[in-house]
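name: query_chain
kind: protein
chains: 1
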Amino acid sequence: MSALTTLLSPLEIRVLGVLAEKQRTVPDSYPLTLNSLLAGCNQKTSRQPIMEVSEAQAQLALESLKRYSLITETSGGRAYRYGHNVDGVLRIPSQSIALLTALMLRGPQTAGELRIACDRMHNFADISSVEAFLDEMAERPAGALVVKLARLPGAREQRWAHLLGDAPPVQDTLPPSSLDTTASPVLADVTLDEVATLKARVSRLEQDLASTRAALQRVCAELGMPKDLWPEGTSS
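structure:
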């Protein structure tokens, strides 16, 4: 990867991605103060995974990225401001930086999803132009920056992932022959991340239900009513 010869940590990737994103989306506020950088790292939208980054963790990530010349630091007013140097280190065009930024911040995506995710950073004419820049990054002589993942069960399109950090999860890179091709068409567009989110929601609902059941049983006990008014295992 040009001058970048090591894999970055998830936190370093998040910091770098936020700086690259904000340069395009809020140019009047760029370079960013540490507080603005933290807000971008801890956003609840357009981020996968969601993170809770502390000021100390962000500072450590910035110091680490400086060693690879990926971060610029300027002093002005009361606070230091930070920018990125992805273009100087990786030597890729602005269109590729936009795609790489979307992958760093949102995880694996299809070319169509990337076109939408990059809309505020660069307006790609069509999906074929997105794919052209992705192919270019995947075939770089200096080292691939992205990789096309194996198609998920039932999915119509393959997703892309960046290679700045650890390799994508094993379940994302299984060869097509090992995937279940009998998946229901209803689940064709459901990603692994969406499944994980649904499981987390179900878990929270079960916890809420358990708390409600316990509260009802306490009320029944106080009123002298049967404790099995809402027996364990009943959902309604």
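note: The first strand starts at residue 32 and ends at 33.
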